């Protein structure tokens, strides 16, 4: 079986795959012309959606495509085919995303950036820090990553509330509500964390009316998709004191253009889409598991339903 690897790190992926599945014939690259020449002879594609979407646009199509990203937006363009099995990266981001979020929650409670500013100014600052215990954490998006985050935060004594497509019981969340409850729950949150995928229903959710009901002491973290946030409304909310701060990992356009208001917005920290990078070793384990399932005709992990966008 020939496998096309369309990845910036295609050599590393090929090395890892040869260790676990030496019977596979591997073809890799990261240049469009090179990938187009290889794709026709490969029944399975593994790689970045932005590198694979052009192949689909040229009329090429795999027997199965495994994305190395959790987000598969480039593959959902309306002109692209949807009659092939597509799986996204799942089950490999929970730990690293949880570490990212916890890092910023603790930095906020311990006021690390204020301490750094005071040090730069040579000003002694012994303000009293706070604890996460008892804080209300609202996680918007309770899928694989959101659930992992909740389990990671539970030992810190926070109150965990989730928002999903519909109401459900999902421990360790105290409750999980439908998306329509976002405004009322955001008003009670000390931490508002977006982990939602990019769908028609999740775009522009975080706008001026929503930020207006937030606690002035609340921290907003967006590690889901940039299109969920109305950029100008977030900047205005920070300027008007509707939020204590924001941590933005994902933006509508990346890299963020020079001159964008986020660069100079008060109390806004940009982290450059670094919250949960793909670990090639974990991704290869997922791919091998799904390859076994695909050969057996079994259900694939991370199966994408094109109609819902994830």
UniProtKB/TrEMBL annotation:
Protein name per UniProt: D-2-hydroxyacid dehydrogenase
InterPro entries cross-referenced by the UniProt entry: D-isomer_DH_NAD-bd, NAD(P)-bd_dom_sf
UniProt keyword terms in alphabetical order: NAD, Oxidoreductase
Signal peptide: none
A single MF term (Gene Ontology): oxidoreductase activity
Domain D-isomer specific 2-hydroxyacid dehydrogenase NAD-binding residue range list: 104-274
